[in-house]
Amino acid sequence: MKLQELITPALIQLQVSLYSREAAIQAGADLLHAAGRTTAGYAEAIEANLARFGPYFVIAPGVAMPHAASPSEVLTAGVSVITLAAPVHFGHERNDPVRLVLTLAAPDQASHLAALGQLAQRLSRSGVVDQVIAATTKETVLNILTEEN
């Protein structure tokens, strides 16, 4: 799947005031659930991963990509995007605090790896993370994250 299929305007919220990593995880999972991409239990699956493995999904400075290998909770692949009004600490020793939360839902390992690879490639480009965090419209976020070149 292309990022254009994984991220839609309904899966984006900008400058959200959240005050804990649990609230950020829940908010990202709620967007996926509201869009019909996951069941209501997906946030719990992510929280279980966090409890078991720690905040490994804080993948870069300021960026968290919560996810869980939970095929029973994922109906179809998707990525929710939340920019935070104020940074939230996830407990990662190098990449905290977080300002961008990309919650990934994938029904199987192949789609998980494909989505993760596309997002990582896009986010590794110079300035992209800062541009997404500074964006004031959902359309701007979509353009930044799904731009082909």
Automatic annotation (TrEMBL):
The keyword Cell division does not apply. Residues 5-148 form the PTS EIIA type-2 domain. One of its GO terms (cellular component) is cytoplasm. Its main location: cytoplasm. GO terms for molecular function: kinase activity. It comes from the Bacteria. Coiled coil: none annotated. Keywords: Cytoplasm, Kinase, Phosphoprotein, Phosphotransferase system, Transferase, Transport. Transmembrane segments: none annotated. It is found in: Cytoplasm. One of its GO terms (biological process) is phosphoenolpyruvate-dependent sugar phosphotransferase system. The keyword Flavoprotein does not apply. Pfam families: PTS_EIIA_2. InterPro entries: Ascorbate-PTS_EIIA_comp (IPR051351), PTrfase/Anion_transptr (IPR016152), PTS_EIIA_type-2_dom (IPR002178). The phosphoenolpyruvate-dependent sugar phosphotransferase system (sugar PTS), a major carbohydrate active transport system, catalyzes the phosphorylation of incoming sugar substrates concomitantly with their translocation across the cell membrane. The enzyme II UlaABC PTS system is involved in ascorbate transport. This is Ascorbate-specific PTS system EIIA component.
